[in-house]
Write a structure and sequence with these properties.
single chain; alpha+beta; Alpha-Beta Plaits; Muramoyl-pentapeptide Carboxypeptidase, domain 2; 2 domains; 5-stranded antiparallel beta sheet; 4-stranded antiparallel beta sheet; 7 helices
């Protein structure tokens, strides 16, 4: 399906690096935003020769916030532009960072959230891989149980969360398979893995499913040597546990999950078999 296809990498919009450039961050809160206000903003950017390096928008209870990372190196009349932006109709709040050279980071927003307000903390895949690698190094096969259990409990929480979120937003709860499909796509947007295939079926009154992934971070860690000392013992146990918890939570039945193929062990992809007990 085209909607699952990874088109390109995505850089988080809270750090901008531009060698030899003078950078500025601006946050603008509109009480009532419309197409005319957006056009007026664009006209002012063009008039004062500001280059947008990154931007994001979020809808808040108090209005619409636009945040811009700008290259102002070639700008003439920066203070004049700032004053004109402050006076735009509908602007109720306006924050400007101190101009910096070469790199600029977002200090206006905290905490970082997703899924309608759930706090997020970003770690690099490398750091997570090292953490898992150390667990396997210290606890051996016991790390499989630890990571699986962490994943399982997290999967239970995720199932409850997404069920509630769908009801709050749509006014109804879709079938479990639809929620799981959406979660897997959300997880892809969060950088965990690319989803190649997901299907659910029923056999002799029991639910079974298949999940196939590429570039799952646990498998990538194994390929890069984080689990090198564990031979065939280490797998994608965190994700395996998460799937088990997610299915158990949403279907209200006990599920087990097996990783039948692992990209980190030389297979072309990771494949998980999910079966109701």
């Amino acid at each position: 399906m085209s909607e699952r296809r990874a088109v390109r990498a995505k850089e988080f919009p809270f750090l901008v690096a531009a060698s030899g450039r003078r950078l500025l961050m601006v946050s603008i809160l509109y009480k009532e935003e419309n197409s005319k206000s957006c056009l007026r903003m664009a006209e002012l950017f063009a008039k004062y020769n500001l280059r947008i390096l990154s931007l994001f928008k979020q809808e808040l209870t108090e209005g619409s916030e636009w945040t811009f990372f700008l290259d102002v190196t070639e700008t003439s009349g920066l203070e004049e532009w700032l004053e004109a932006m402050r006076k735009l109709p509908g602007v109720v709040d306006f924050y400007v960072s101190k101009p910096e050279e070469n790199m600029l980071t977002d200090v206006f927003h905290f905490p970082l959230t997703s899924r309608k307000g759930v706090r997020m903390v970003i770690f690099s895949a490398e750091m997570l891989s090292r953490t898992l690698g150390e667990l396997y190094k210290v606890f051996g096969t016991g790390a499989q149980f630890i990571t699986y259990r962490i994943g399982f409990d997290y999967g239970i929480d995720l199932g409850n969360h997404f069920r509630t979120l769908f009801f709050e937003v749509a006014g109804e709860t879709p079938p479990p398979s639809q929620i799981i499909d959406f979660f897997l796509r959300y997880n892809m947007s969060a950088g965990w893995q690319i989803i190649q295939e997901f299907k659910v079926s029923e056999e002799k009154g029991k639910i079974k499913a298949l999940v196939r992934t590429k570039e799952l971070f646990e498998a990538s860690a194994r390929k890069k040597g984080a689990y090198a000392s564990q031979g065939e013992k280490a797998g994608c146990d965190l994700f395996r546990g998460m799937l088990a918890g997610l299915f158990t939570s949403l279907y209200g039945k006990e599920f087990r999950v097996w990783e039948v193929k692992c990209e980190g062990k030389g297979d072309p992809y990771c494949e998980f078999s999910i079966q109701q007990v």
